[in-house]
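Entry type: protein chain
Record version: 2
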Amino acid sequence: MVNGIHYENQTMLLKAEISKMLSLVLQLYKMAVQSIEDGDERLAKRVMDLDDPIDDLNRKIEETVYEIIARFNPMAKDLRYVITMIKFANNLERIADLAHNIAKKTLTLKSLREKYDPTRELKEMIGISIDMTKDAFTAFGDRNLDLVKEIFIRDKQVDKLEDQFSEKLVELSKDGKMSIELIITYTLMARDVERIADHVKNLCTEIYYIETGEELKPVIKQLKKEQG
């Protein structure tokens, strides 16, 4: 019974670390977007500086998981839970890396002497992906599987907007209304945003698996089929 209590305490601490990391990554992403919107180089550099502490937190979470496995030898559902936490943290670390990339584009625009003036599609992509990240934080804390499914489906909106954005950039390039350097910068930024949404989708998959032990994709496929 004592070991059971100790194990439960350790897993609660692990979940708290994951929650902390998710909150930090969301904050980092919002700061990166703000830095490019405001042309704030100091904020962009702050985002880049915060990337290392998030990497450190990711490593701490991995070490905690290995310690739990070595000390308690969890089986079945318990083992699945702690192993999935590593995958969860790794996806968060990748979102932080992509936020770092977006912040760096603040400096790129400054060097090009260009003002940040995105199209509707890119603005919508950013808005949806930030909301997805915020809702993933809520879903994780509340163990809300209905919200998890909804977030997962929203990723398709981001994919569609990226396609539309790419088409618009081609038109702007042909019309000579945007420099090649700026088009490349925006293209890379849209790719970063789309990949953030993909990683949030992965977070949803991990939350669902932690709570149910089942894969989310077949559930989403069936849900779409029922909705027609």
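Comment: DSSP finds seven helices and no strands in the chain.
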